[in-house]
Structures are given as C-alpha cells and as structure tokens.
Amino acid sequence: MIRTSREGAAARPRSSRRWAVAAIAVVVCLAALSSALAAGALERGPRIRGVDGDIALAVEQAGVTLVFRADQPLDPSSAEGVRVDPAAPFQVEVAGSTIRLRFTDTVDHARDYRVSIPALRGRATGVTADAAFDFTTPPLTLTTLERGGGFDRSGGDDDRIVRHDLSSDTDEVLFSAPRIQEYSDDGAGVVAAVLDQDGRASLTRAGPGTDPVPLPLPGQGTVGLLRASGDAGRAGFVFTGTGDDQQQYTSTLFLIDPADPGAGARAAVDIGGQPLQADLWFFIPGSAYLVAQTPVGSLVLVDATGSAPPRPLGEVGALRGVLPASTSLVVQGATGPAILDLTNGSLADIVGAATEDASTGSVFLSDSSSVRWTATDVVRRTSADGGTEILRSGAGERIEEVCVSPSGRYAAVGLVSSDAQIDQYPTRAEWLGRDSAVVDLTTGDVLADVPGTRPNWCA
Hints:
SbsA Ig-like domain-containing protein, 34 strands
C-alpha cells in the first residue's frame, strides 16, 4: 500500500493555483502588449512591408505592375501625389492594403528609378506617412553569333556567342564551339545547337561562370527554330527524324527543362493529344506559354510546362511574330496584317502602318506604326506620316535584315558587304562578316555597331 502525506496532497492544489495565476498573468501581459502595439499602429501612418513586381520585364513590356503591400488598410486618397522619377507614364489605384502602380509603357534600360508615395493614409485612422521605393533597370544588351569562318574550315577560330552590353560598352563570350548552327538567349544563359563536321546536331546549355551542360535530343535527326525562355523555364526546338522510341517525327515541337536535363525532351501536344507539328512558333514574353502554327495554318496556345492543356486560337492568319512590348501576336490575315490580343481573343486590323511600297521586309511596332526596309534604307512609318528614314546603308554594303528589340524602341540592322560570301552551313547559313547597327527608332541615333549575325532580337 502506497502512502501519501497530507502535506504533499495539500501542496498540489496550491501549485496548480500558482500555475493558473501565472498563466493568467501571461495572457494579461500579452493582451496588454497587443493592445499597445495596436495603439501604436493606430498612432502612426501605414508602412510598406513589401513590393511585388518584375522590374526586369518593365524594360521590355508595357503594363508591368508594382504592388506595394502596406501593414494596414489604406484610404483611396493614398494614390494622390504618387510620382515616378525619372518620369514614366503610369496608372495607380488603391485596393485594400495595397497600392498598384501600373506602367503604361516600357521604362528605360540602365536607369535608377524612384517611386515616391507622399501620403499613405490609414483607412481607419486617417494618419499619413510617406514611402519610397528605388529600383534599377537592367542594361540594354544584344547577343550575336560570331562565326569563325566557313563550315568546311579545317582550323581557325571557333564560332562564338557574344553578349554585348550596350549600356556599358562591354562584351562577354557566353559560349564557343567549332560550329554553332544557332542559339537562343534566355537572359541567364544560352542554349546552342552545335554541329559536328558531318552536320549532326547536339544541344548545349551554357552561361556566365558555369560549365556547358549537354541537353538531350529525342533521337537522330535535324533540329531548328531553337528558342529559350527564362519566363517559361524551357527551351524548345523543331525536330525531324527518328526518335529513341523509333517513332518518326516531322517538324515536331519538343521542349526541354534546362534545369532538369535528365528528364529528357518531351513533345508538345496538339489539341487532339498528338505530337504538335510546328511551321513556326514563339514563346510569349512574361509567361509560361508559347504559340505555334501548324502545317494546316491553325494557331495553338501551349503551356510550355505542360500544366494546362493546349488551346486552339483558330485559323486567323499566318503567324508573323509577337508584337513588341506586349503579349499580342501579329498575324497576316486574309485582309492584311492584324493583331491578335491573347488576353481577350480579339483580332484588330493594322490600319495605316502597311504600305504598297516595294520593300525587302517589315516589322510592326503597334497597330499604327511599322519599320520597313530595303537593301539601302530603313524607314519608320506611322498612320500619320509618310515615313522617317532611320538608317541608310553605306557605300559597298547592303541591309540584310532588321529586327526590333522586345520593347520596340530599338532596331538591330544587319549590314553586309556587297561582296560577302555565304558560310555554307547546312542549316541557318549566314553571310560572313555581317555586322549589326543598333539604332534608336525614335531619334535615329546609332547606339552601337557590333559584329556577328543572328541577333537575339531576331526570333
């Protein structure tokens, strides 16, 4: 029989009472502290506790939004007096405890910006406070492929992929190999299609400060239309040949995750779930999506990550490209060029930008402006004027190609000597000695002249 003392039995209730009193005291202290903090918050104005938004995308695309998150609900008057320095067009609105600032146009490269909010006002208290947010935009860059000579060369220099920082006038070699067919720059690095002396292709991922990594192909065959997207986290290419599964593929779009090359290359699928054949395709900037045109002329919107099923966009015209500074597409319809808005599916004709003048090529900047070129000159046209000459080729050279930057503010004008020779590459042959003049499309100023072909602005 176990005995208990009366003293121990009497102590337990007293001990329990002490714990209860202590717990109540802690609760009271916490409540008092909470009340003090709440009172402090009521006595001061709102504070910004975080800012969300893709600053890097703002130099390439209009409509990028910065979301300022405050620590308390805001009065609508908090939007009054908001400014951006240096000046940039924007819209601002207050919703709950956030201020949303939307840039209605692209912003400049390599600039220091400040967003000033002079009067954040608490909705419950009316107390105000000021806030500011500083950010620096990325530099203006152009990447080119510098070929070391003709395809059949037995020695000499390697081909090089070089990124030119036009804001600081510096260059960086991203990758080199004896023969590079083509490449795509996703901002962090490049994916390159490399050829051996027999013309067989392989894929390589390379970037600053990292060792090149081989990427898988689906089998033995040819690759082309190589593209990469940092937003989607994917690279893609069109493949024709025999797959490792012994299936025959013709112009089939394959996608790879460069961060997980061991997962292999997978075929994108069309609306019916079959491997997607693509005559042309592009990634949609700022998203995980791509658009492809099939051999029968229909357009398909594809989630590059495979998370969502493909969506038909219809037979609205031949795909020409992505409209600069937007997520809209330029298509060549039955009645002329038009813009397909992917946000709502609307199709609007481009009026006034197209002309019947003979030209080598053209690219559209908006629904009312375009850049057109011949072998001798580049002209910017709008619906309101007859055109402004941007650049004229010099003696002994001709204009071969014109591509515009993602923002639509600049153009890379490909210039070759009149007696230039073709390098004889079996796929994506180029003129030897080609340069690219980078031109401000607003002022006509030539910002730089860089060597190489296949600028990354040329999709």
